């Protein structure tokens, strides 16, 4: 056993904190690739998770992101009842300027070398075209275009899951899951946000939209009849449901104080800036929080379908199950008077522990 002293912020310490099985650093000078793949837990099956491409300012920031996101994938798979483990990849760079076929294919070769213990899909900054490039080097990728036998985009399924999560919360708060006349603020009108706005408008909800990308925002608002609101003053408005569909950590001590909504339910990963404190604050304030990793599991469901025999109908049915899973979490939270994110963690951890007893690691 090595007697090396670990500094406070050492990589090995961080892996210990999150309980990761394996973290792979990928570097290739020819293509400029710098990526990190984190495999969190494979008790239930191979680790599946998207690959995010983002202009991280430091390597530590990228590492922290991939560790947090991959852990969330383990919980997401467990609570959704899928036989998958949790993993994630991050590519450091600007997805608009630093991406190339060669870079994506090189990244695909790193995935191939993991022999199926990690299977990826699209995430922020990557899309079906990138998955197609990765697919040229490895079969351990989902979300490839339909023309290549894949399921195509994840985001419609993710939006469907979020929609079902919203309905489950509305049922809890208002006694009926009809969205007619309810007001929803969708922050982020990207892939998931746009599909969600469409579903909400089909049920006659009143929808406010905000985004930092003005063109996209105006386009989505016009197409579906939503009202544009300022991103910076979102929480000055009154609405029933806040649906964060941009980036994480928008639910924090400062924003919770301002919030007048009764429900938070969206697709963004890691919405609570501080899982423990913010979850508790929401419980005390009586705001229902649909755990992000549960209701945004639609993308993972899509990947699961693609891995084990794809059917669009079956995939959408699996996404609809998010309604009951969310109801179960809300019930546990109420019965035990614990934050919904803790209730969800407990349900997910119990499933992993139960399955661990009957089988070893994948
Ligand atoms: N795509 C999926 O299937 C999927 C699955 C699970 C979780 N998620 C999560 O859902 C979120 C949205 O995913 P996506 O695929 O729609 O991404 P996307 O990149 O297509 O859209 C994100 C949108 O958010 C906007 N945005 C960025 N920062 C913002 C800010 N500070 N304020 C307001 N808007 C901002 C962007 O301009 C963009 O329009 C992400 O957090 C992602 O991790 C996505």
UniProtKB/TrEMBL annotation:
Q: What is this protein called?
A: Glu/Leu/Phe/Val dehydrogenase
Tell me which family the UniProt entry assigns to this protein.
Belongs to the Glu/Leu/Phe/Val dehydrogenases family.
* PANTHER family xref list: LEUCINE DEHYDROGENASE, VALINE DEHYDROGENASE
Q: Does the keyword Membrane apply?
A: no
Q: What is its EC number?
A: 1.4.1.-
Is this entry keyworded Oxidoreductase? yes
Regions crossing the membrane = none
Top-rank EC class of the record's enzyme: oxidoreductase
Q: Which Gene3D superfamilies does this entry report, sorted A to Z?
A: Leucine Dehydrogenase, chain A, domain 1, NAD(P)-binding Rossmann-like Domain
Q: What would you give as a GO molecular function for this chain, any one?
A: oxidoreductase activity
Q: Which InterPro entries match?
A: Aminoacid_DH-like_N_sf, Glu/Leu/Phe/Val/Trp_DH, Glu/Leu/Phe/Val/Trp_DH_C, Glu/Leu/Phe/Val/Trp_DH_dimer, Glu/Phe/Leu/Val/Trp_DH_bac/arc, NAD(P)-bd_dom_sf
This protein's UniProt keywords? NAD, Oxidoreductase
Domain Glutamate/phenylalanine/leucine/valine/L-tryptophan dehydrogenase C-terminal per the UniProt entry, residue ranges: 152-360
SMART domains given in the database record: ELFV_dehydrog (SM00839)
């Amino acid at each position: 056993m090595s007697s090396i002293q670990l500094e406070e912020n050492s990589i090995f310490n961080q892996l210990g904190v999150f309980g990761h099985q394996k973290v792979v650093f990928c570097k290739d000078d020819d293509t400029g690739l710098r990526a990190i793949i984190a495999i969190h837990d494979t008790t239930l099956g191979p680790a599946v998770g998207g690959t995010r491409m983002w202009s991280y300012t430091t390597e530590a920031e990228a590492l922290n992101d991939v560790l947090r996101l991959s852990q969330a994938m383990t919980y997401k798979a467990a609570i959704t009842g899928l036989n998958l483990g949790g993993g994630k990849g991050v590519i450091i760079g600007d997805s608009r300027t630093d991406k190339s076929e060669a870079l994506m294919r090189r990244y695909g070769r790193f995935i191939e070398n993991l022999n199926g213990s990690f299977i990826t899909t699209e995430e922020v900054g990557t899309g079906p075209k990138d998955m197609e490039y990765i697919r040229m080097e490895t079969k351990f990728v989902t979300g490839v275009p339909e023309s290549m036998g894949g399921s195509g985009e994840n985001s419609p399924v993710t939006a469907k899951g979020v929609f079902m999560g919203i309905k489950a919360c509305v049922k809890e708060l208002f006694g009926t899951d009809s969205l007619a006349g309810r007001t929803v603020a969708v922050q982020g009108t990207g892939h998931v946000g746009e599909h969600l706005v469409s579903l909400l408008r089909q049920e006659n909800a009143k929808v406010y939209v905000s985004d930092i990308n003005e063109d996209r925002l105006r386009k989505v608002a016009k197409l579906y009849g939503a009202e544009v609101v300022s991103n910076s003053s979102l929480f000055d408005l009154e609405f029933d449901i806040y649906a964060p569909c941009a980036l994480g950590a928008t639910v924090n001590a400062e924003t919770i104080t301002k919030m007048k909504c009764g429900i938070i339910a969206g697709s963004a990963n890691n919405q609570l800036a501080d899982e423990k404190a913010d979850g508790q604050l929401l419980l005390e304030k009586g705001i229902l929080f649909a755990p992000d990793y549960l209701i945004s599991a639609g993308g993972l469901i899509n990947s699961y379908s693609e891995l084990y025999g794809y059917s669009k109908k079956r995939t959408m049915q699996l996404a609809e199950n998010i309604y009951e899973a969310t109801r179960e979490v809300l019930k546990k939270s109420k019965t035990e008077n614990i934050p919904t994110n803790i209730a969800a963690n407990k349900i997910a951890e119990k499933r992993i522990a139960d399955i661990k007893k009957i089988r070893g690691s994948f």
